[in-house]
Amino acid sequence: MFTNWFDRKILVLGFSKSGIAAAKYLNKHGADVFITEFKPEKEEDKTKITELRNLGINIEFGGHSDEFIKDSDIAVTSPGIPPHSEIMQRLADEKIRVISEIELAASQTGKPFIAITGTNGKTTTTALTAHILNSEYKAEPCGNYGMPPCDLIDDTSIDYFVCECSSFQLEYSPSFQPQISVWTNFTPDHIDWHKGLENYFKAKARIFKNPQAPAFSVLNAKDKKLLEFSKEAAGEIFMFGDEVGENCCYVKNDAIFYKRNGQEEHIIDLKDTPLIGEHNYQNVECAVICAKLEGISNGDIRTSIMSFKVPEHRLEKVAEKDGITYYNDSKATNPEASLVAINSFNNQNVVLIAGGRDKNTDLKEFCEAIKKHIKTVILIGEAADRFEENLKNNGFDNIIRENTMQSAIDKSIELKPDVVLLSPACASFDMFSGYEERGRVFKDYVLSRI
Prior knowledge:
By secondary structure, the protein is of the alpha/beta class. The protein is built from 17 helices and 20 strands.
């Protein structure tokens, strides 16, 4: 990787947050930067475009011109562009190396990265790990959560980059070598982008194996594929989710314990954690392992966990009033994500608000979980018909249909349950601009009612 960027022509693919961060960093350090975006220019981006052009950064929209591509020393890609796309083929033909913004950032700093990947749980684990490390060091959450690392690497006061890494980013990170690599879980996702499940797995696996071997690999003992993969992962291996081997973190006697070289330590009682459900306990276990490996005391770990604020829209506790607790899990945009929330509740009267734009995924496991854990389902949005049909076919009949989020909340309150859970299992675009707006509408209306 270049250490001197002066007079180097660098191509940045995509007018994205990470692409803009890479462009600004490279421009600041003397590179001749060209941003190429396939989509047309948007009115709301004009101020940002003007700022970048005033810095001397070249920008084009509506396609990838030969003028921008030719003679580029390297290309930094936005994570959404798949390897089989036309632009990637053109770059391969020109023999232009393509890297991620994460790879670029890591190559420009000597500070350690803690890389956190997985299908689910990445954001909570990233946020909690950084929060605990900040009791002793300066640790910045970055990557898919927080700021792009290129916006941070000139800050010499930072001790650790705690980086949420998607499979898209890792696909283009062939030299990225974290100090600690964490894999929360593995379930099928992004199959079209990666052209197959095995390619999806390989993209994530690369930061656990030579030549990118970390000092420490942290893997989920409850995930059969990752438990098997632990046999070939590099570095010192730590498992979480179950008491497996000499190095692990797990739940026992309603508390989280940590073990290294067979020596067990009590970390925190489950009742003292702000996170609920087995999946969240696993997120805590990941963060505990990382914190212990970086020398944080048990007392500081416990205090930090207790003061942690759950990231917005991820099984976020909104309020508790008149015996009802309200949770916003709007980020659950598919049935697999909703399963995690649904399975977090046992022996409680739970009203689930679900529905939205249907992804037409299989609902069998989702319906089975509802039968075990949910008292009433309130359906909204375009997916309501199919969800109702599947629920009834699987033996669940306590279903209510509502037309708006507000009326669904009103009906939930009338039922006087223990818990009202928004976990839609669908995209939001039939009624909202995104899962963030959906979650905020839920929270605002709940707070207005109680």
